[in-house]
Amino acid sequence: MKTRILLAAVLSASVAFAGPPAPKKEGIEGQGYVWNAQEGEKIEALKLKGDVTRGEEAYEVCGACHLPSGAGRPDGTFPQLAGQHTTVLIKQMADIRAGLRDNPTMYPFAATLIDPQELADVSAYIENLCIPTDHGKYEGADAALQVAKGKDLYEKQCKECHGGSGEGDKSKFYPVIAGQHYKYLLRQMTEIRDGHRRNANPDMVKVIKPYTDDQLVAISAYQASLKMPGAMCGDGKK
User: Fold this and answer.
1) CATH of the domain at 35
2) Average pLDDT score, the chain
3) In whole angstroms, what is the distance from residue 33 CA to residue 208 CA?
4) What domain count does the chain have?
5) Is residue 237 part of a domain?
6) Domain carrying residue 163
7) CB 119 within 8 A of CB 109
8) Which of 230, 92, 224, 201 is nearest to 154 (CA)?
9) Same domain? 6 vs 68
10) Which residues are CB-neighbours of 113 under 8 A, at least 6 positions away?
11) Rounded-to-integer distance, Cα 222 and Cα 121, Å
12) What are phi and psi of 10, to 5 degrees?
């Protein structure tokens, strides 16, 4: 554990320590790319049972940016991870490691996971964490209006996949968005709409493509207000 803590500190000071950048494979716009192809270390990790105790040690490296609680940063630089589905976590980390999702800040940390078992372990630990209730929300003077507008959009086109409480769908790799930071949600949806999130679900790209900047602000504001019953900190979990 001490070795991981030291490594996290070194990586936080200089991500260049980890060596060369991730390989870059063709993403959503490339020929032959399948959004959720069942292959490689991802499918191996998904078949394994994650060990929460081992995962806690592996998470030491992640906590340097995402915080020990998994709360991330309210300014949206690092997402809230706590309570996220293991399927989603495994897919995203595997995609970053394989070069299907561009995240040069995350890559050196993801690269420290040694094998599919450790990928499964750290994902199990993160999923087991309670979702913080204190996170970044839309703070404009028109917050109530934006949330109301966003709710209308969400219920028309997002609820079917992400659920009424933002619980997502573990079996379909749809992420939990309850408790996520407003600024992170806005940034990711903008990148998906504009074609910059190479491992995005093509179905979501089609839905979000017509959205204006104002609509993305509203829907992000609403999503950031969602709470997942039974999973929030102080709501039967700790």
Assistant:
1) 1.10.760.10
2) 89
3) 20
4) 2
5) no
6) 143-223
7) no
8) 224
9) yes
10) 58, 93, 97, 119, 122
11) 32
12) -65, -45
193-214 burial string, b = 16+ CB within 10 Å, else e?
Answer: beeebbbbbeebbebbeebeee
CA dihedral (206, 207, 213, 219) in degrees, to 10, reads -150
138 close to 146: Cβ distance less than 8 angstroms: yes
Same domain? For 116 and 148 the reply is no
Identify whether 166 is part of a domain: yes
Torsion of Cα atoms, 83 then 96 then 204 then 172, to 10°: -50
Q: Do 185 and 74 have their domain in common?
A: no
Q: What is the pTM of this model?
A: 0.89
Judge whether 205 and 126 are in contact, CB under 8 Å.
Answer: no
Examine residue 234 and state whether it is found in any structural domain, yes or no.
Answer: no
Domain end (from 74, 95, 128): 128
Residues 107 and 148 in one domain: no
Q: Distance (Å, rounded) from C-alpha 211 to C-alpha 193? A: 8
Claim to verify: residue 7 and residue 108 sit in the same structural domain: yes
**Residue pLDDT, tens place only, 50-87:** 999 999 999 999 999 999 999 999 999 999 999 999 99
Tens of pLDDT, residues 164-200: 999 999 999 999 999 999 999 999 999 999 999 999 9
